Structures are given as structure tokens and as C-alpha cells.
Amino acid sequence: MERVAKISDVPNFGKKVITVAGRELLLVNIKGEIYAVENECPHQGSPMSAAVVKDGYISCPRHGYRFSLTDGRCAEHPDFTLVTFPVQLDGEDILVDCVK
Ligand code: FES
């Protein structure tokens, strides 16, 4: 697990792009619950930083594929799974397991 940001760095219902070990991740804050996903859509590689987040899902801005924030699955297109990363909170710190 690696310390990557503070909770206060990610606005509530907002997102933040971070780079860890040369890889772009997107942190999402939903009422203090933090999720970490790859900032690249598994369909055709669009950045997920402009995605819409709603009801536990993140929707790619390009073609609208909707991925679960918890396991990255896309019910409508099961061949495509967004890479997700385990997150832990340590006080104000966000820790992410980036080894995937
Ligand atoms: S590039 Fe994301 S849904 Fe097509």
C-alpha cells in the first residue's frame, strides 16, 4: 500500500488524477468513501477523469460504458473491465495498492 493523497485533496463527489509509479489513477470520493480506478477506459482508452459518477458507477465520457467503482465490471459490456485498486484510509491519508 502506498500513500498517494489526503482525503481533503479529493472533493466530495469529485475526482482527482494522480500518478503512481508512472501509472495514472483516478481517485473518487463519495461521501468520504474513496475509490481508485485506472484513468483509462478499457474500451478505447479514454481518460476517465471526465467521467460521470453516479450510484456507485463511473460512466466513460466517450461511449458511456458504465463500470462499477468497486470491481470495475461493466454489466452491459462484460468483456470490458475497468482496473480498480484496493484503497485503505489511515486518518487523513489515502493508501492505494497499485500493484496490478
Ligand atoms: S472509450 Fe470508454 S466507453 Fe468507449
Any overview of this molecule?
It is a single chain. The protein is an all-beta fold. The strands form 3 sheets. Strands 2-3-4-8 form a 4-stranded antiparallel sheet, with no helix packed on it. The chain has a 3-stranded antiparallel sheet with strand order 1-10-9, with no helix packed on it. A hairpin with a 2-residue loop joins strand 2 and strand 3.
Q: Could you say what the CATH architecture is?
A: 3-layer Sandwich
Q: How do the SSEs run, as a string of H and E?
A: EEEEEEEEEE
Strand order of the largest sheet: 2-3-4-8
Report the CATH superfamily. Answer: Rieske [2Fe-2S] iron-sulphur domain
Number of helices: 0
Bound molecules: FE2/S2 (inorganic) cluster
> What does the radius of gyration come to?
13 Å
Average pLDDT for all residues: 95
How many β-strand stretches? Answer: 10
Fraction of residues in helix? under 10%
Largest sheet, if any?
4 strands, antiparallel
In CATH, the topology is named Rieske Iron-sulfur Protein
Q: What form results from the Cα inertia axes?
A: globular
Structurally, the number of domains stands at 1
What percent strand? 35-45%
Any key phrases for this structure?
100 residues; mainly beta; Rieske Iron-sulfur Protein; three-stranded antiparallel beta sheet; 0% helix; binds FE2/S2 (inorganic) cluster
Short description:
With 100 residues, the chain is mainly β. The protein contains no helices and ten strands.
Draw up the topology in text.
Elements (H helix, E strand, L loop, with lengths): L1 E5 L8 E6 L2 E8 L2 E6 L13 E3 L2 E3 L6 E3 L15 E2 L1 E4 L2 E4 L4
Bound molecules: FE2/S2 (inorganic) cluster.
FE2/S2 (inorganic) cluster binds next to loops.
